[in-house]
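notes to self, project folder thing:

trying the whole complex as one job this time. last attempt i did each chain seperately and stitching them together was a nightmare. two parts in total, labels are on each line so i dont mix them up again. if this works i'll redo the older ones the same way
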Amino acid sequence: MRPTNISWQRLRDSQLFWPLLALALIMLFNVFFTPGFYNVEIKDGHLSGFLIDILNRGSILMLLALGMTMVIATGGVDLSVGAVVAISAATATVLINPALAKQLISSEELIKDVTYTPLWLCILTALLAATLCGLWNGFLVSRGKIEPMVATLVLMVAGRGIAQLISNGQIITVYYSPYFFIGNGYLLGLPFPLFIVAFIYFLTWLLARRTAFGMFVESVGINARSSFLSGISAKNIKLIVYTISGFCAGIAGIIYSSNVKSADANNAGLNLELDAILAVVIGGTLMTGGRFSLLASLIGALVIQSTTTTMYALGVPAMAASTIKALVVLIVILLYSDQTKVVLGRLFERERAGT
Amino acid sequence: MTTKLKINRKFVPVLTTIGVFLVLYFYGFLQYKGMRTPQAFLNLFVNNAFLLITSIGMTFVILSKGIDLSVGAMIALTSVTSAALLERTGLSPLIVIPLMLLMGTLFGATMGMIIHVFKVQPFIVTLAGMFFARGMCFFISLNAIPIRDPLYRTMALYRLQLPFFERAFISLGAVTALIVLIVGMYVAHFTRYGRSVYAVGGSEQSALLMGLPVGRIKISVYALNGFCSALAGIVFSVSLLSGHGLYATSVELDAIASVVIGGTLLTGGQGYVFGTLFGVLVTGLIQMLIQFNGELSSWWTRIAVGALTLIFIGVQSLFVSSRKRRAITKQTVKETIPIRSAEGLA
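result (full assembly):
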């Protein structure tokens, strides 16, 4: 019996275990309560169904969670990602829109399938704006020595104002089909955003696990002072993670605006920062910093997205679904808490002693 | 001499806020005719009564080194629940109002309990609380519910005429807010409980060693804030005479910003309830100035409040770091040699 016990122990200690368990529970729930949840059919040459929908809609959250993971691993938090999504979406759509949000022009001209700035320039500018936002956060945290929650709160409050300033307070609608491909297109039958997520995951994984950067991030999260004393520039590590988070939010903003074909500075990415933080927490990265797993955060994002999608499938009103989400999150947090672990650990030990 | 200097330093953030408020008000006074009446000043209280009430609760939470993100959702939940109870079941407001206050208090206490017993970060727990409360609003009603109760209507229309000034009045909500302010100041600065909150915020470890009931204080602070946000919710629903789940969005941010602008340190243990009043007034004044200006769009309010919060946090961190610098001996500073970018190492 001993070997199985040990592997069980290792499995339980793995950061992927709990998020996967949570995901499995939700999936199990759907087997019984949501008819047609597992139907995947081919429609217009691409796959469609609830599962694909979760992956497609979850892509924004997954991107945000990737950036957020490293921020949280340094012991910080980035509350501004929702606002940065709005800024990036506003920047990209303003550049595409012929009116540049300055004046109202005739509707025929507006719905022409054209862009007034080359697409690559739109995307680049939006990403640049988002990265600058991240850099600003990083600057406040690392150089201004302001508590991360507060420093990013500033951009969270002011960011939507800035997004509205860019879009001149209007909801900008775009009509440019190549841009729609980013959020709505399909490649090899799978949603295109998924490939973006895979690419960004690969990049962040390379950075975090194939260079020493990931270890630096963890050491800063565990003890910023001692890692500084051992020769790691904690300041710059922090600056970089917030910048990455801003960059990820920028991509998410482009996908979002392309998906809904418009940008609304007030509602784009609303409450997404909370979802992203929860995804990371479900992924088992402690809010106090330290060990992190990008893959676990991705699964955490999927847990949140599948909970949301399940709610919709069951006909729970979109706004009311957040109550259920809150309960799920609370249960997960309580499962993670040290107190529960101590109790569980005792239970396991007693069992082992008994057998 | 030294003690005198210390006291001055303690008041620096609050005095800065009061200074900013006076300068802004003076600017508005010169610029806009509409601001020269006493009523313009009183409107700051009338329009921001609910924000003031909830910010005072938030001050206590932040003083104890916590944070509560659920207040906006709690205000919305109170407005929806009270509207539903009044309209659908026909309960008397005299029962509904205490019931709402009890609900808020219990909600806050539950969050405080989870924070204390399971040692989860307040930020996360209250975030879940915010999601929970917002969602509950829509379980009760998807649409706004108008309140037709006669007592609520009378309260909404009631105006307290001020003595000495002609045509200068404040609403019942503003009166409530001022009472909460006075009670809050008394509790924070003149009671044993208030001192314990400061002690817990300053250093939980020391408070525990001093024999203070840290757990009970932490839980009670959240319960108190739940009470305040429920009270703010009632004031809010009285002023709008309806309840809806989308009311009071991002009020939690406004409340935190007001507390910070009011000079309370987010690291806990330092600040004044009185400062929060000026934090709320400055936030309200910015809004008022932008309205009077007419050309600037309303989103400038958000940018201005964000910028102001940043400035005040800057003042705070200067304040804190200069204190820390005095604490750290020069020896350790000499030993830590700055090391260049880690990218090169990676």
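what i see at first glance: The two ends of chain B are 52 Å apart (CA to CA).
need to look closer tmrw
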